Amino acid sequence: MVTIYRAYGLRIVIFTDDHEPAHVHVFGDGHAKVNLIGADGGPELIWAEGMKRNEVRRAMNVVAEQQADFLARWRDIHG
Predict the structure, then answer these.
(1) Which is nearest to 68 in space by CA: 31, 27, 37, 33?
(2) What is the mean pLDDT of the chain?
(3) Cis peptide leading into residue 21 (ω within 30°)
(4) By C-alpha distance, which of 59, 53, 75 is closest to 7?
(5) Which residues are within 8 A (CB) of 16 and not within 5 positions of it... i.e. 6 or more apart?
(6) For the chain, which has fewer Cβ within 10 Å, the N-terminal or C-terminal residue?
């Protein structure tokens, strides 16, 4: 597990032994999984557990703002 970003009480990680499609896990009060490229080309929430709506919204905003950097990190880790 590699922490790639911290902000707003969120920790965003990529698991080194994870699978396609490219995605991140977001930890805050709970845990969410976000695909980096959804059907519309932007990030796509897959699921969230134990997170309030405003925390999920904040997580999605961070992933959208950092999408290119997070994709680059995914490729660095997974090839």
Answers:
(1) 37
(2) 97
(3) yes
(4) 59
(5) 1, 2, 77
(6) C
Which of 58, 30, 28 minimizes the C-alpha distance to 43? Answer: 58
CA-based angle 33:34:36, to the nearest 5?
145
pLDDT digits (tens, 9 = 90+) for 17-42: 999 999 999 999 999 999 999 999 99
Domains: count for the chain: 1
Total residues belonging to the chain: 79
Distance CA(55)–CA(79), nearest Å, equals 30
Residue 30 sits in which domain range?
2-78
Distance CA 1, CA 13 (A): 6
